[in-house]
Amino acid sequence: MAPRCWRWWPWTAWPRTRPPPSESTQSFHQQFSTQEQTPQICVVGSGPAGFYTAQHLLKHHSRAHVDIYEKQLVPFGLVRFGVAPDHPEVKSYGAEDHRGLEIPGEELPGVLSARAFVGWYNGLPENRKLAPDLSCDTAVVLGQGNVALDVARILLTPPEYLEKTDITEAALGALRQSQVKTVWIVGRRGPLQVAFTIKELREMIQLPGTRPILDPADFLGLQDRIKEVPRPRKRLTELLLQAATEKPGVAEAARRASASRAWGLRFFRSPQQVLPSPDGRRAAGIRLAVTRLEGVGEATRAVPTGAVEDLPCGLVLSSIGYKSRPIDPSVPFDPKLGVIPNMEGRVVDVPGLYCSGWVKRGPTGVITTTMTDSFVTGQILLQDLKAGLLPSGPRPGYAAIKALLGCRGVWPVSFSDWEKLDAEEVSRGQGAGKPREKLLDPQEMLRLLGR
Question: What is the pTM of this model?
Answer without folding.
Answer: 0.76
